[in-house]
Write a structure and sequence with these properties.
Helix content: 40-55%
Strand content: 5-15%
Order of helices and strands: HEHEHEHHEHEEHHHHH
Oligomer: single chain
Largest sheet: 6 strands, mixed
Number of strands: 6
Structural class: alpha/beta
Number of helices: 11
């Protein structure tokens, strides 16, 4: 599948971030722990050049623990400071302020030598749509600062949020990049809900996800939907439609509705803890 999505507001958001980066000490990049590479916007490396960096692997409760551990090692070996978190329940959140100060220790020391004491570190939070930035900010600040939604594009503008006396955070809209060079990246982002569902061929996307699950998480579909994984992907989707009562007039199977159910149950963890990619061995 070739999936591309770059609505006009993202160009404006990127321009705004480029203007604001000069105010920033550290860039905090929020990734989806199920797809850490696919959810990394390559434009951020250019944008955040010469800035301190911190990577957060969010939604770790939805990802395969064993594979998340491999990603932690992967980033550590590349010298990238990383914290694994679940912003929804607060897991890992306490470590973030310490990590931010650790990442910015050179800047804090420079300030101290100039006689500037206790100036808050200014951080920019960046990430693709629907990676959980608003939930993260509300959890980090311990108050409702931003609107939260489970679809891409909830945050439209920027806002400064005082986290504590040590950290101020600039929220930014979720942005993608103009073209996914690898079709797998677009597919992964569609699976996790970072692409507008309205532009997707849901049945084809779901069949591809079914194929991935059969190969990497054998038995999971059988257990969840009481179907046989011995059939081809399209037939499995039809069986799920039948078992879930997804019918059109005349008792015709509604495969589109069934595909929506499978995708939604993957996204919210009802299918289990699943990672879509892992570091190369």
């Amino acid at each position: 599948m070739n999936i591309q999505w770059y609505p006009g507001h993202m160009t404006k958001a990127k321009r705004m971030m480029q203007e604001d980066i000069k105010l920033i000490d550290i860039v905090i990049e929020l990734l989806d722990a199920r797809v850490p590479l696919s959810s990394r916007n390559p434009d951020i490396d250019t944008l955040a050049n010469n800035k301190f960096r911190l990577v957060l692997l969010n939604k770790c409760d939805l990802a395969d623990d064993r594979i998340t551990t491999k990603w932690e090692t992967y980033f550590k070996e590349k010298g990238i400071m990383t914290v694994t978190i679940n912003a929804r329940n607060g897991q890992g959140m306490k470590a973030i302020t310490t990590k931010v100060q650790e990442a910015c220790k050179e800047k804090i020391e420079r300030d101290r030598k100039r006689g500037i004491m206790n100036r808050p570190i200014r951080a920019m939070i960046v990430g693709i749509p629907n990676v959980g930035k608003s939930t993260f900010i509300n959890s980090f600040a311990k108050k409702a600062c931003t609107k939260v939604g489970n679809k891409p594009g909830v945050t439209k503008g920027k806002q400064w949020i005082k986290i504590n006396k040590n950290v101020e955070l600039l929220d930014t809209p979720g942005i993608l990049w103009p073209k996914f060079e690898d079709d797998t990246v677009g597919e992964h982002l569609a699976y996790i809900g970072s692409i507008n569902d309205e532009i997707l061929q849901k049945t084809e996307l779901c069949c591809n996800l079914i194929g991935f699950l059969k190969e990497h998480y054998s038995g999971l579909l059988e257990q969840r939907y009481q179907i046989s994984e011995q059939e081809d992907n399209a037939e499995i989707l039809r069986m799920i439609a039948k078992n879930r009562g997804c019918l059109l007039k005349g008792n015709e199977l509604n495969e589109e509705k069934a595909a929506g159910i499978v995708l939604e149950e993957f996204r919210n963890g009802k299918l289990g803890r699943i990672s879509l990619e892992q570091p190369a061995e």
